[in-house]
């Protein structure tokens, strides 16, 4: 089975941290992809249709909320599992995440083990 995870964050060090956290899954055939902004993320989601997306909320060009809403509602990609990752943990932001179709809302700093476990659960490995 072809399994792909897209990591989206405009901060290079956070993108790298997420890649390092998830790289053990590459040994099990998971391909890790990255995007640096919302527009790039949406293009990858539309063309590659990754199984799982770890998506930062606050980004240039398109916010994570916008990317998620377009992927889930405009493009109808309901089988792409989207995790919004953000420093914004207020209830308002969580509700916005639900409205745009996010499957999960995780706040930073995140627990690396929880991130890997969520990826394993979503990918069925």
**Mean pLDDT metric:** 93
What order do the SSEs take from the amino end to the carboxyl end, as H and E? EHEHEHEHEH
- Note the main sheet: 5 strands, parallel
Shape: globular
In DSSP terms (H or I, runs of 4 or more residues), the helix count works out at 5
Per CATH, which architecture? Answer: 3-Layer(aba) Sandwich
Model regions low in confidence, pLDDT < 50 over at least 5 residues: none
CATH class: Alpha Beta
The strands making up the biggest β-sheet line up spatially as 2-1-3-4-5
Q: Radius of gyration in whole Å, from Cα?
A: 13 Å
Helix content: 40-55%
Number of domains: 1
Structural category is alpha/beta
Distance between the termini: 11 Å
CATH fold descriptor: Rossmann fold
- Can you say what the CATH homologous superfamily is? Response regulator
Strand content: 15-25%
What is the count of β-strands? 5
Itemize the secondary structure elements and their pairings:
Layout: E1 3-8, H1 12-22, E2 30-35, H2 38-48, E3 52-56, H3 64-74, E4 81-86, H4 91-99, E5 104-107, H5 112-123
Parallel strand pairs: 1-2, 1-3, 3-4, 4-5
Key features of this structure:
125 residues, alpha/beta, Rossmann fold, five-stranded parallel beta sheet, 5 helices, 5 strands, 43% helix, 22% strand, globular
